[in-house]
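Model it.
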Amino acid sequence: MPLSKRQKRRLLEVSKMIESSIVVKDDMEEIQLEYAQEIDEIIDQLSKPVEKQKELPSPDSGDSDVVQRKTLNNINKAREFRKRNKQIREARNYQPPPPPQVEDAPDWAKKLWKSIAKKCHPDRLSFLELSAIQIARRQIWFLEAKSLYEQRSWPKLIHIGVQVDEYVEEVSHKEQLGWLNAEYNGISNNIQGMQNSLAWKWGTNWENIDLRINIVIAVLNHKGMQVPSRQEITELLLKLEVD
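Modeled.
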């Protein structure tokens, strides 16, 4: 059954929310990385005077370091992804990869992929009346759609299609809306997780010296490191603010 104008509008609204939340999430990941690096800098400076006095590390310290490295690694991957996207946007002579070959794709997904490629393939963009920003965005959508198609991630492919005004009639509006809402909720939960992280609380409460001291102490305890006096930590934090 064909989608009504109202149903298409609902899909588009959620899709726009997804696009906006992706931008927010990517920016927050970069900011969170900076906050985490700042905490590491503080911990490193506090640990230097007592480094030689330490004997065996706490049993939990190794696990903590592994978790921290994984977290920073994931954030760095996100930054590299954004950097690659930026390079694509700036490349004027970009040559896209060949179309994906997925034999068991549902007919509606094949049809949707062809429609997306028709509107987003770099070889066709020069013939469309689009701004530089729109062209760059469609180049990215083309690459994302190719990857999603190869991964058989049909719900996310629908999101790309909605962005270029290509809708799927063979899947019910209710199911499509459920897929898009799930995608949006997943990104929103990711954002909320960052806001609840220790690094985020550190960076967004710079005026709350007591909270920042407690965060430093919590990290030191978690790493099994010697905790200096609050006065020493306070002096270092105040010095950090004037650097």
